[in-house]
DUF2236 domain-containing protein
Amino acid sequence: MTPLSALPVNLVSDARRALATELFTRVAGAEGVERARRVHLSEGERWFSEDRPIRRVHADAAMFVGGLRALLLQSLHPLAMAGVAGHSGFRGDPWGRLARTSHFLAVTTFGTAEDAEAMVARIRGIHRRVNGVTPDGRSYSATDPHLLSWVHLAEVDSFLRAHDRYGAEPLTAAERDGYVADTARVAAALGVVDAPTTVSELDRQLAAFRPELAGTPQARDAARFLLLSPPLPAAARTGYALLSASAVAMMPLWTRWPLRLPYLPVTEATGVRLAGQAAVRTIRWAMGSGPVQSR
């Protein structure tokens, strides 16, 4: 295999740009470039200064793994999963849902305070329309602070753990607490009550949800869709498989059977981890040539 250093510079640059464009379009959608320009280049105060941990974590390619883990973990709450299955359109338009989620994270993390507040208001309006009944007869509402808390906790835990394992610049203990505290500001704006502000609080609140969690048929169906049949061209499936295997390897042991996830401790600790590092490094290399750089 020819090393990159032996290839013509323009060929490497073209390949890097093509990969960046494909990744960015998948994650941010067709309007992603224009949205990114507004997020990063608009003048105005931000919720978070450039030195805050949330900006480092959310800008890193490890978020690709963290995002997949978050979706798997979130699916274990039957009420939250019923809301996703009934209202999100994750099967019919998974990339659209991903683009909306990534746009929310980008605006609240890097955008102006004015845009962040408008985005939160928009999401809260959408949440007011998401309600229903689970297959076993329980009512749910996306405005429920308890469910909002679960979604928040699963995301923060997943993003932080993915960054710990695959991030370019690992956080110190104080910065890990700082990241959790940063995300609490966004959570409170969305309606979460008493969002954790330290890693120890995050762990405690996550543990308190354990009795409510279960591997429902909806959750297992979502896991199969995410891991085995995502709507991707053949050329992208190998890379996606590495990312999804890395996400599964970071799932707690107690989640494996409820979601019917494999557990291969030796392989996960060696081959999967190395493959995940290679996949994340490749994404990081490609996205360094992305259309918009962070402020």
